[in-house]
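Board notes (copied after class):
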Amino acid sequence: MQATPDQILTVAQMRAAEEALITGGETVDSLMQIAGRGAAEYVWRLAGHRKVTVLCGPGNNGGDGYVIAECLRARGAPVAVVAPYDPATDAARNARAAYCGDILDGAARPHGDVLVDCLFGSGLSRPLDSVAFRCLTELARSHTQRIAIDMPSGIDSDAGIALNSWLPTYDLTIALGAWKYAHWLIPSQEWMGDRRLVPIGIGAAEGAAALIDKPRLSAPAIDAHKYSRGLAVVVAGEMPGATLLSCAAAMKGGAGYVKLASNDPPVSRPAELVVDMSPVDVALEDSRICSVLIGPGMGRSPAMRERLKAVLTGYCPLVLDADALILFDPDLLDSQNRAIVATPHEGELKKLAAAYGIEGGSRLHIAKVLARASGMVIVAKGPDTIIAAPDGRVAIAQGATSWLSVAGTGDVLAGLVVSRLSTDAEPFAAACEAVWLHGEAARLSGPVFTAAELVTRISTAYAACL
């Protein structure tokens, strides 16, 4: 199978993918040439004829560095190679032998414009030793820009954490072959800077995660009407502002009809928002309903718990958000076959995990295990939003703007999820579409926006998908 450029691999999956290429006729040396030459193109674009220092480690990441250095040298760039260790693999030794420039030992501290870190790549699982750490950090301080090849040295690729304190940050990280989890997870993405990918021809890996990419949406059919486009119901809580934000987002997210189920309708609401004042269980009996959202502005009173119980007895696709996740208990679910999307922030994720007896682990681990245990699609919100499906699929959002860290933006996301569900999108796909639209609307909003202003940008974000 042909790989998609958005797949995210573990270290083990990447090694298996490389082995498959070698079985198919490539060699470690040929793959190193492809990766190194591709990375050199990006280094050249940033560095040009400025002074470049390439820091080479003992493994194949160091071998990539020798290939990069030779490519730059051949183009006339002033290159210094620093090698604290001798090559430890045949491919790295071959690449070093093919480099026609001088090689400095690990005590050298040349000053330059761009440092290229090829010390250790994505396979590192232990902290840098004192020699490597000192060499890396001192060279980083003596260069104005820094580029990491495949992975910044000292970062655990699978866990997305730093293995040493006080590691340098980078202006650019060039992933080789495929993205790794650390490129997109917090806290490791803080070290990455801009990210670029150099393909080396690997195929699609079974069980790979994926970056959330721009969805392919379409205009309504020529004979569409409000019900054929999807009826979404938002169940009101005790705080109307959050509920209205969700309704406003749902009306922008593709649904043809958005209804608010409320015993006490808000005084100020959009004219196009229909309010059903029936008891919730009665309001949800309408067979035309395609999806339901409960949680935004809900509150945690006994009355709201009863309202949640009434909602959980239904069968149409459901979105659980905010206080609904705090009040949720697995025993409240009447049907295990119902499509449910849960959108927890970090605290709510821990509460849900505890409800299913899940202890410890990273957000990624918890989201994956929770999705399997609960049968729900889990949208673990944050600067590295993770979406996990019960069947094992995982998607990670490309980092959205930090200006989203303002009250109400989670209510907007919940409204988008219920809207996409109402259009008959499969739950995992609906969640991915909503997260992308949410992030793109935030990007279009620029700095310092409110949740209400975020809603106004959804239409433009949607238009980009048509």
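Comment from the instructor: The longest strand covers residues 112-118. The two ends are 27 Å apart (CA to CA).
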